[in-house]
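Quick one: structure for this chain?
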Amino acid sequence: MPTTRRHDDDTSSVLLHAAGSLRGALSEVAAAFEAAAGFGVTARYGASGLLREEIAGGARAEVFASADMGHPRWFATTGKSGPVRLFARNALCALVRGEIAVDSATLLDRMLAVDVKIGTSTPKADPSGDYAFAVFRRAEAVRPGAAAALAAKALQLTGGRTSPAPPPGRNVYGALVAARQADIFLTYRTNAIVAVHENPGQRMVDLPESLAVEADYGLTVMRSASTAAQRFADFILSSPGQRILASHGFSPTRPR
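Got it. Here's what it folds into:
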């Protein structure tokens, strides 16, 4: 991660708090920003809800990039940050263990099967968990009773305060599926792309339209931030920044 001096009154790096699913993309964006502007970036990645709590509790931060719009809006509505800007889109999919026979059309049946373990992140602490439970609610319209059944069997394996750290250098979702802690893990497409690359036996299965859930990512700049931090936020939204995000599997932020 770039750590060169900033060329303003504050000689520390731009302080970025960002969703864990952005680690690869924003690390590359930060490197490009340093090359273009000469300012470094120091990043902390984690579950967006937990990062929001850290910042609200006094952790020093300048740019907050969340996997949803709600967590950064909390700072904007309380006057602690500027406006929230949509900067990336993602979508949930199913990361599937290789031995599980499933496609989009049969995904709901397989998730409801008693012998299939479903992994999710932790709702409220991590937006990925909230999106997964939104999938369960959509399943209720397809099959009455599905929402409660899926919520009851879901294993909240990541994104919580006590969730175990992934093996060093490994995608946590792929590692959990490889360890058979989950047969089907509901996670972002960007996470699944990395997991499949690291674990060739795993597969990414798109959710059927009836279950599909998209994720809007929002960023905000704290009121106390430096001009370099504002420039970094603008760079994320610039054409070069957006191209890097797209190369990691994120969707453009043009209006729907």
